[in-house]
Design brief:
The protein has 145 residues and is mainly β. The chain has a single domain (8-143), classed as Elongation Factor Tu (Ef-tu), domain 3 (Beta Barrel). The protein is built from one helix and nine strands; from the N terminus they run ββββββαβββ. The strands form two sheets. Strands 2-1-7-8-9-6-3 form a seven-stranded antiparallel β-sheet, with helices on one face. It has a two-stranded antiparallel sheet with strand order 4-5. The longest helix is centred in the middle third of the chain and has 15 residues, at 73-87.
Length: 145
């Protein structure tokens, strides 16, 4: 029987905006990263006679959810990015790009047109928490994923 292993440490990448220093992603302080497609690529329409019209729908948009420790350098970078975008010209709102690579399985994502869905909720508790950032993406290209 073949054994396989997984490690979050195999994930690396970068997030960058032209007006800010990039953040090199190594997984430090991160709980999880989820890449999700939004567009449903197929739709069926049923006619009165029961015939089916199948539509192939274009679209590679989606969202990336990053869950990071609230004291992490990544969370601090994302807060600075968000605060910059709020006051930046509208033309810069979706100028952020990200690459993610898993060196163990060879999968990767090239993500462009990134903008924040909203500022994450702020948590105050007896112990530190994780903060979830939802980033909207205009285009997600995936390889071997």
């Amino acid at each position: 029987m073949k054994q396989t292993t997984y490690s979050f440490l195999d994930l690396s990448g970068a997030i960058a905006h032209p007006s800010l220093d990039p953040f090199i992603f190594t997984g430090e302080g991160v709980g999880e990263v989820t890449v999700a497609m939004i567009t449903e690529r197929s739709a069926h329409d049923v006619g009165a006679d029961g015939s089916i019209m199948v539509s192939k729908i274009a679209g590679n948009n989606g969202h990336i959810t990053i869950t990071a420790q609230q004291t992490s350098v990544l969370h601090q970078w994302l807060m600075g990015w968000y605060n910059y975008l709020i006051t930046a010209p509208t033309s810069e709102w979706a100028d952020t790009a990200m690459t993610l690579r898993n060196t163990a399985d060879g999968s990767s994502h090239t993500i462009t047109g990134i903008s924040p869905q909203k500022k994450p909720d702020k948590q105050y508790q007896s112990q530190g928490q994780r903060t979830s950032w939802v980033l909207m993406a205009a285009d997600i290209q995936s390889e071997n994923a």
